[in-house]
Amino acid sequence: MNKGIPEPEFEAHGEDARPSIEYSVPGDDETSNCIDWDGPDDLSNPMNWPDARKWSIIALVSFNTFNVSMAASIFTPGVPQMLRNFNNTNSQLSTFVVSVYIVGFVIGPLIFSPTSEIYGRLPITHVSNISFLIATVICAVSVDVPMLIVFRLLMGLSGCVPVTLGGGIIADLMSVERRGTALTIWAVGPLLVRLSEGIWHSVRDGDGHFG
């Protein structure tokens, strides 16, 4: 017996028996909605795009992943100076103002992963980039620590998109045979952040200034 499908009642017996009700199995109806590519060579399929376009997109996603990963802790050396500028002596805030960005990184995928499946990866990426830029600018002009913390959180929320969707974007573009190389290039971005931060911090003094 199939679960969810009503059991038909029979009005006759033997070979002439016919069900008194009709039903259809979901998926067997020819009118069922089905979305697919127009053949294996459909140019709307990202896997059929020119290689130059594919690798350009992968390069942009990789750079964006590097950028948002760098924003997590690059301003750490300047936190003491920031607290002095805001006349704040709470030492616990020096850690929280950095880590709140990661809180956004944790919450963001719960929002953007499902919405990217509904609206597509490109619109979500555009919204992320614009939101990240606006939040970054507002952080730069913050007038107090709470304002900075709120917009650091928003930076993390919007900045998680390249990390969250990067693998999916590459899977949309590349066949299984070529996917490993592209994923390796994309994954190098966050690894380079640690090297770049070391160089960046080495040319700054204790107050976060160059010198």
Quick structural overview:
The protein is mainly α.
Q: How many helical stretches? A: 6
Q: What assembly state would you assign to the polypeptide chains in this entry?
A: single chain
Name the shape in a single word.
elongated
Number of DSSP strand runs = 0
Sheet of most strands: none
Total separate domains: 1
Output the CATH homologous superfamily.
MFS general substrate transporter like domains
CATH class: Mainly Alpha
- Alpha-carbon distance between the two ends: 78 Å
What are the secondary-structure elements, in order, as H or E? HHHHHH
* Rg: 26 Å
Low-confidence stretches: 17-25
Structural class, judged by helices and strands? mainly alpha
- β-strand percent reads under 5%
CATH architecture designation = Up-down Bundle
Q: Kindly report the average pLDDT value.
A: 80
CATH topology name: Growth Hormone, Chain: A
